[in-house]
Amino acid sequence: MMQGGKDDIFYDARLVAEARLHLSTVMNGQYSEPFFVVMCKILSRKTFLGYKTLNGKDIKLSGVLDFFYNKNYGLGIKTNSINQFLGNCTRVAIQDKTQSQYAGKMISWLKNEDDRFDFPEEYFQYKRLRTSIRYMSSNHKMRKYEAVKLLDMLYNSYPHLLKDVGAGRKFKDVFECCDHYLLRNKVETLKPIKHLKYATVEGCEVIAEKLYKRFQKHHIRAMIAKLIELYKADQQTSDAETAEQL
């Protein structure tokens, strides 16, 4: 934990030390709330332009990139690792479910401050679509939930399609995009089949009919084969127990 308040002359030096402490977590592709929190403080205070070290030395830096690369007074990120760092930041920012969204705030600041930061374009396309989903009618909570799932799937597996989705683009929403490329499992949108607490023959027949309509034929064959297998195994167990009793 960082010691001292904002009036401490070494406050900025402590910020840098804490950022370096948590950097390895981000470089390993994991989310680190403390790293992004302290980075937002460093950016807002412009610590990246210079500060007083814990040894009392006043140092000057030429900017954010200098701060990122400087191994003595900055984060010490190697030049050949900067793209890995930026890519990891965007991935964990999408995974960040906290209300503060510090990872996203850091990325937005860096993108606006210096266009030399080569963040993946897919990240900004994702954020654009995620915002549009957030403003969908609250009366369609399940549809919003499914839209987020489809958006996550597109980002993880087909990120190049994101730029084609949205108002005035090739596809008006993620549903239309996924349907066009046959990426949406229509079964997920169907209502769940309610099971019977006390099954009857008639009830089982109703369930069988619904399952038949819902699944493809090879799924039905696999299900029948598995049911027969389970039935035979249960029958053998019953026969064995009966034989023991005799």
Give a description of the structure:
- It is built from 10 helices and 2 strands; from the N terminus they run H-H-E-E-H-H-H-H-H-H-H-H.
- The chain has 246 residues and is mainly alpha-helical.
- The protein folds into 3 domains: 119 residues, no CATH class; 68 residues, no CATH class; 45 residues, no CATH class.
- It has a two-stranded antiparallel sheet with strand order 1-2.
- 20% of the residues are buried.
List keywords for this structure.
246 residues, mainly alpha, 3 domains, 58% helix, 2% strand, elongated
Strand line-up in the sheet with most strands: 1-2
Runs in which pLDDT lies below 50 for 5 or more consecutive residues are none
Tally of domains: 3
Class derived from helix and strand content: mainly alpha
What's the story with the biggest beta sheet?
A: 2 strands, antiparallel
Strand content: under 5%
Distance between the termini: 73 Å
Percent of residues in helices: 55-70%
What shape does the CA trace take?
Answer: elongated
Kindly summarize this structure in a few lines.
By secondary structure, the chain is mostly helical.
Please render the helix and strand layout as text.
Elements: H1 11-27, H2 33-45, E1 50-52, E2 58-60, H3 64-69, H4 82-95, H5 102-113, H6 121-134, H7 141-157, H8 174-180, H9 201-214, H10 217-245
Helix pairs in contact: 1-2, 2-5, 4-5, 6-7
